[in-house]
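Sequence in, structure out.
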Amino acid sequence: MPRLLRDIVRMVVSLDSGISVVGEVPADADVAERIAATEAAFVVCGNGSDDAVDPMPLLARFPRLRVLAVAGDGATGLLYELRPYRERIGPLSAQLLVETIRGGA
């Protein structure tokens, strides 16, 4: 995910007092190990780029995890859950981003 988009996502999420950002993982890092170490419940990642995170292995290892894959332009996203589940959530706004993380989308 482009740096500017990561910064925007972090800022929007941080504005909600009920959500904590527990870490950020560089594209070349082992995302699964960071999820295990932080016990993250939700992951926001890029979608459609060469270094995009594949949510399926993460969901297989962490069945309660939710993954939001954000398009490179930040305009749309896909929500993945183990059910298997994928929901197009449409144009992203600050409010929709927070609602999706909270589980209200």
